[in-house]
Amino acid sequence: MCLTGARPAAPPAGEAAAAVPGEDRPGPAGGARRRSLGRRRSCRDPAAPLRARGRSSRDSGDSRDSMVVRPLLRAVIMGPPGSGKGTVSARIIKHFGVKHLSSGDLLRDNMQKKTEVGILAKSYIDQGQLIPDHIMTQLMLNEIKGLDQYNWLLDGFPRTVAQAEALDKECHIDTVIDLDVPFETIKCRLTARWIHPASGRVYNLEFSPPKVQGIDDITGEPLVQRDDDKPETVSKRLQAYDAQTKPVLEYYRKKGLLKSFSGTETNKIWPHIYAFLQTKLPDVSQKDAANPR
After folding, report:
1. What EC number(s) would the UniProt record show (predicted)?
2. pLDDT value at position 158?
């Protein structure tokens, strides 16, 4: 078992609303991507209005309908593999109703459908090379254009300063959520992770082990450890992430957009993220809003 010293989560301003218990296990992080209907608004406009009809003059005594204008949130979530991005993103989707756009999901979808960009991206991956910035940028910006009437959260993009600069030319980013989890903690998480290949079920030997070691709870079939989760591979992935994304974090820090949340447990980091986002968006979840998970 890996033991790491927990660093206290850095509470944002207005932490009074942060006394929120988290979840024990992550939920699905698949936010739907839908093309917007009607007249398209520019992604460059951070305050593209969402107007809601107010009370009529019979109720309010005003002869004009009231108009409510809310700025649309354009957010990015960053964190190394195994930092809990999937879990946190799922909770953000649930409570704040944002559209979630994951570069990894989008890439896999394009490769599975064998689109032109999917075939091109796969050729780089098969050669063990990073996908060039211009391909990733084109792929993501094309999807973002369909979300211009929604609040959205980008996951896995941008990963380089060149990608961040290209995104800035098209969209006004409001905030960047950085999950600052110690690498030693992540190594423990990932190397303890085993999967059931056929279903994709994930087990963690420390937090959510199978009932019988090495066996899937449902089918009784053997579990495997992905190559990506083997100790030597995990170390290389974390080193690569650190080298690639440090400049991106610094880029957003200089712009005053970076909000870092430190800790070793997602359930302890989440309440602070929730309190921070409450200053920007209302909680739209239908139940348990006073005790969000």
Report:
1. 2.7.4.10
2. 97
